[in-house]
Design goal:
The chain is α+β, with helices and mostly antiparallel strands. It is globular. It has a single domain, classed as YehR-like fold (2-Layer Sandwich), CATH 3.30.1830.
Length: about 150
């Protein structure tokens, strides 16, 4: 379970930069992780919105399915803390979580135009390769990160 949370946290690290431009871009990436031993399935979808090759916004949807209320509670607590901390530190996050019928759904909108990018990059130097010369994250860089984690992107 820690591996999944670490992966989710790592992916968040790559959502935190803004952009602008001319040609509208919308890409979707999806990733499924199943840990039957721990009793859950995690489906993650990333909708990337931007202009040209610069990310403006990502809508992150995480669906955790489990018959174990403790597993769902753990994910709910962890995701709430992760996104609350990110919003407090960098700005730009809106998150809502529902927990119903053995399914936890977390929907997070990350507005890169509201993120303190300089502070974020100071804290996460590992994503500098995804940042262009205007200090904005590139869509191509973000897609590379998602693909390296096993996501399928369209």
């Amino acid at each position: 379970m820690k591996k999944i949370i670490t992966s989710v946290s790592l992916l968040l690290a790559f959502f935190l930069i803004s952009g602008c431009g001319g040609t509208k871009v919308n890409k979707t990436c999806s990733l499924t992780s199943t840990d039957l031993e721990k009793g859950y399935k995690l489906d993650t979808t990333y909708e990337i919105f931007g202009n040209d090759d610069v990310v403006d916004k990502v809508i992150l949807t995480e669906v955790i399915t489990s018959d174990d209320d403790q597993v769902l509670s753990y994910f709910e607590e962890t995701l709430n803390k992760t996104y609350d901390d990110a919003n407090e530190n960098y700005g730009g996050y809106k998150n809502s979580i529902t927990n119903d019928n053995n399914k936890l759904v977390s929907k997070t909108e990350i507005d890169y135009n509201k993120i303190d990018i300089d502070k974020y990059l100071d804290d996460h130097i590992d994503i500098k390769d995804c940042v262009n010369s205007d200090n904005k994250i590139s869509i191509a860089g973000l897609l590379t990160v998602y693909n390296s984690l096993g996501a399928t992107c369209k």
